[in-house]
Amino acid sequence: MKTLIVLLVITISSALAAPKKWPDVPYTNVVAYCYDYTQDARGFSISFSDGSLHKGVIKATTIRLSDAQTKSLLKILNDVVDHERGEVECYDPHHAFVFYDSNWKIVASIDICFLCENHSAVPKGATEMFDLQAMEDFCRQIGLPVHAESKQYTKLFLQEQPTKEPQAKEKKEQNKTSETENPFD
Q1: Residue ranges per domain, the chain?
Q2: Which is nearest to 30 in space by CA: 60, 58, 70, 59?
Q3: Which of 79, 96, 164, 183 makes a 20 to 30 Å CA pair with 126?
């Protein structure tokens, strides 16, 4: 009986000591986005507390990740590397990964700025020191553009906009993404 109790204590201790993998929430779909952070007065983040996406999403670059791509992404995000990063000179995120539940409600997201080597995750808990070069390579591999200057993302966003200004109501509807809207419908 003592042996069983000792084994139980060891098992529980090991489980508690094991680092949690981010995101530690159930999800069904993962979508990669490229966006122009300057296009939304609400802030830099890809997602907002009301369940909507940033207005600067460059739709032509949006990619729904396969299971294999999701596994690769999670491996990068959860493997800690021992690299020193420079001082943060900006925070101009242009790449993001959004995790959705089966109803296309956002349950987690991470924004990444390759220019200053920084990121922000919701919920908190993503490693501070994932391999940024591996992440950049992954983004290129799946087809997300990676540019050296922020203005290149603005140019991509503007190229995608209609040449004639839509009616105010239509424009408002185009810019709002509800919390249960599938970005691929």
Answers
A1: 20-175
A2: 70
A3: 183
